[in-house]
Amino acid sequence: MKALDLFDKLNTNLGPLGKHSELSEGYFTFPKLEGEIAPRMKFKGKEVLTWSLNNYLGLANHPDIRKADAEAAAKWGAAYPMGARMMSGQTDLHEQLERELAEFVGKESAYLLNYGYQGIMSVIDSLLDRKDVVVYDSECHACIIDALRMHLGKRYVFPHNDIDNCEKQLERATKLAQEQGGGILVITEGVFGMTGDQGKLAEIVKLKEKFDFRLLVDDAHGFGTMGQTGAGTAEEQGVQEEVDLYFSTFAKSMASIGAFIAGDAKVIHYLKYNMRSQIFAKSLPMLLVEGALKRLDMLRTQPELKDNLWKIVNALKNGLIEKGFSIGKSNSPVTPVVLNGTVGEAATMSKDLRENYNIFCSVVIYPVVPKGMIILRLIPTAVHTLEDVAETIAAFEAVKEKLTSGYYKTTELAISFGE
Ligand SMILES: Cc1ncc(COP(=O)(O)O)c(C=O)c1O
User: Fold this and answer.
1) How many angstroms does the Cα of residue 218 sit away from the middle of ligand 1?
2) Which of 301, 328, 345 is the last residue of a domain?
3) Hey, which of 104, 182, 307, 353 has its CA 20 to 30 A from 360?
4) Domain span at residue 400?
5) Distance of CA 386 to CAs 43, 279, 379, Å?
6) Phi, psi torsion values for 126, nearest 5 degrees
7) Per residue in 17-67, pLDDT tens?
């Protein structure tokens, strides 16, 4: 008997995002933004005002950072140190960065991770065995969902930020953990990257009075942007101590690559010896470690970076609300502009924004959000200006009016994309 060719299905099923690839590639998916990382970049040869920079504090192109990165590259090249931390990739600077990160987020110890995505998967994977039970927020990032796919035990999900339901799941989890002789890990995020609302960390921490669990927070969007010192969302909500494991990537406020996990020394020591993605992969290159030390130093000593960010965030949010836009429940820099329409209308509106108003932002559509919802996602940074904000709001008013009048419904693009 002959098996099917594994690749046959690729002819008919390219997946939920891939199915639009013929129409979208190079424009809506895999667009190329060229030039220095800044609010004004080139898209298809034309200058656009960009709101997708992954650069909250404006560090990506800060002259001091560019200088530090260039010097580190000249000094170390891209390869050093050689292998995995445990084998031949350990250096004083890796350890120094870990000490400084731990101190900054108020934890005993920290450990570097090569990428946030695979790093947090390994954190979760190495902490859990089949007797342990996980309780997590339904909107957790894909890296957390993938980590839980590896978990051999039970997991209970609570609807996004629904603390009453979280408590119910904790009751179920406690019962099961008691029966099985396991523990409980609760996982949520500091700031949810699509909707911009903060995880209800303080309310989850309060549940520790009733239940025994450990709390892991992915604060990718909160590190450097939230809290008085920029130490993140748990600092903002006054519960830094009660968060057992604090995670952030360097991909947002630090405008780089890498990540870290911080917590009690004994837990971090355990992770260091058990996280497969770090034991079996090359250490973070020196170029990134030195770069991260410089970025952390600026983040700590130049509060004006965060103040500038929030000046833009507040102007953008207040301006949008004043003009009658919904920004959902955002209480962080992530600013979603929530509209209604089909996938086709979203594509046409986004093209109109790029072609005729010179505004480039991400468009979030079904299946990431429910059918009929469109989110234009704006990520303000410290290097945007108040003029950028005004220009964007004016453009949004114009396209919203076209959307509600049905103008985008009948374009060829809208019809090709469909619902
Ligand atoms: C919430 C969240 N967690 C984890 C990650 C993954 O981090 P990295 O890009 O360092 O792999 C991201 C995206 O960068 C994220 O938004």
Assistant:
1) 9
2) 301
3) 307
4) 8-56+303-417
5) 22, 46, 14
6) -80, -20
7) 888 888 889 999 999 999 999 999 999 999 999 999 999 999 999 999 999
